[in-house]
Structures are given as C-alpha cells and as structure tokens.
Design goal:
Organism: Prauserella marina
Order of helices and strands: EEHEHHEEHHHHHHH
Keywords: DNA-binding, Transcription, Transcription regulation
Helix content: 55-70%
CATH class of the largest domain: Mainly Alpha
CATH superfamily of the largest domain: GntR ligand-binding domain-like
Radius of gyration: 21 Å
Strand order of the largest sheet: 3-5-4
Protein name: DNA-binding transcriptional regulator, GntR family
CATH topology of the largest domain: Four Helix Bundle (Hemerythrin (Met), subunit A)
Number of strands: 5
GO molecular function: DNA binding; DNA-binding transcription factor activity
InterPro entries: GntR_C, TF_FadR/GntR_C, Tscrpt_reg_HTH_GntR, WH-like_DNA-bd_sf, WH_DNA-bd_sf
Number of domains: 2
Length: 237
C-alpha cells in the first residue's frame, strides 16, 4: 500500500485515510535549526540554500525569515539578505532580567493552580535532576532543566507571559548550552530548581516567585562569570 492510500477495514469497507507525515513549515524548521545551533551567530542565511535544505519554496523561506526577524532571531541586512542575529552579553543579561519577572509570575501562578498529579510530575523531575547531577550527566540535567521550566509555564497557564518567555529564550539561545557546561554550574542551579519545585508543590505562590527570581539572578551572575572566563554560552537553565 502506498502513502496516501487508506486501509481496508474488516468488513470490506474503507477505513479512515492514513495521514501522510508533513514536513514542518519553513519558519518552524529554520527556527529549530537556529535554536539547535546549526546556524551560528552572524551566519548568512541564503534563501536558495534554505529552500533546498528544507524543501520549501523561495517565497516560503523569504516569509519565514521576515517572521524570524520580527522574533529577534534573524537580522535583515540592506541589500545583503539575512543572517543569524548575534546577542551580546549585555543583551543576554537584559533578557534574563525580564525573564526574572515573568518566570516569577509563572511560578506564582503555577503554585496557585498545580494539581496533585502535577505535583507528582514536578517531584519526579526534581528527583531526576538530583540523579543527573550526582552522576555528572550534564546534558541530561540540561534537558530536565528545560522540561521543568516548560512545565511550570504550562501549569501556570499564563499565555501572555509564556509567549514572551519562549521568544526571549529563543533569542538568547547562544548564551545557554555552554552556561550549562560551565564548571560547577549544575551543582549551583540544582538547589535553586528544587526550591522552585518545593514552593510550587506547597502552593506557596510568594515563595515560588522568590525562588524563580533568585534563580534568574544566579543565572545572570553565571553569565557574567562565564564571559569573564572566556567560555561564552545554549539552553538557559
């Protein structure tokens, strides 16, 4: 049976058509490539190359680059097309300062709305984070880190804050992975994350907000320390 055909059901009739897998839109594909670090800061984004790489039309790629420019991921250059926008340390710090407020809000909202099932999920994430740090699994810890922040935002159900945070995190992607790799960073951030989990699970909105803000202040300090050490920084913890 070829793609797009529908399977026969047991009675000789036709079952529902089998859905074909669809490729992500150009904007989704290019955004994901930037976030994964496949395209480096200041790298030119050539429409013809992107069209071939992602199997999209030139018009679709052009529209995607315009949208990504509005998101702050891409920079349009006069008569020179587009390139991946570089984010300086100063801007990364500013992004963290805004995140501090919004992530604090989301943590407080999550504490007010968290269910018993979600408490179990957050507790499990915390346990897994402890294990990752104890075993030196830095990449695993980074993934759990992102998962925790994402779940707190989802539980908070504050759509406006979530939309802004997703955009800010994408913009600062270059200042993220190496921060997680910075010597000793997971051991420092673990208790900060556990404090957020504890406060949210205790339905203590004020404590959750304070814990989230304290964590982002710590991230700002780590960003500056990493920059001073010449390590630069990809998934902000």
């Amino acid at each position: 049976m070829t793609e797009g055909e529908s399977a026969q059901d047991g009675t000789g009739g036709r079952a529902a058509p089998i859905e074909q897998a669809t490729a992500p839109s150009p904007v989704v594909a290019i955004r994901a490539a930037i976030v994964r670090g496949e395209f480096v800061p200041n790298q030119r984004l050539v429409e013809a190359d992107l069209s071939a790489q992602f199997g999209a039309s030139r018009a679709g790629v052009r529209a995607a680059l315009l949208e990504l420019a509005n998101e702050g991921l891409v920079e349009r250059m006069q008569n020179r097309g587009a390139r991946v926008r570089a984010v300086s340390l100063a801007e990364a710090v500013e992004i963290c300062e805004v995140r501090m407020v919004l992530e604090g809000l989301c943590a407080a909202k999550a504490a007010e709305r968290v269910t018993s099932a979600e408490i179990g999920e957050l507790t499990s994430i915390g346990t897994a984070m402890r294990s990752a740090v104890a075993s030196g699994d830095v990449l695993g810890y980074s993934e759990l880190n992102q998962r925790l922040h994402r779940r707190v935002r989802e539980i908070a159900d504050q759509e406006t804050a979530t939309a802004v945070l997703e955009r800010l995190r994408a913009q600062s992607v270059r200042h993220q992975f190496k921060l997680a790799m910075h010597p000793g960073r997971p051991a420092v951030s673990l208790p900060e994350h556990l404090a957020i989990i504890e406060a949210v699970c205790a339905h203590d909105a004020d404590a959750a907000e304070r814990a989230a803000r304290a964590h982002l202040r710590s991230v700002i300090g780590a960003l500056r320390e990493a920059d001073d050490a010449g390590t630069g920084v990809r998934h902000l913890p």
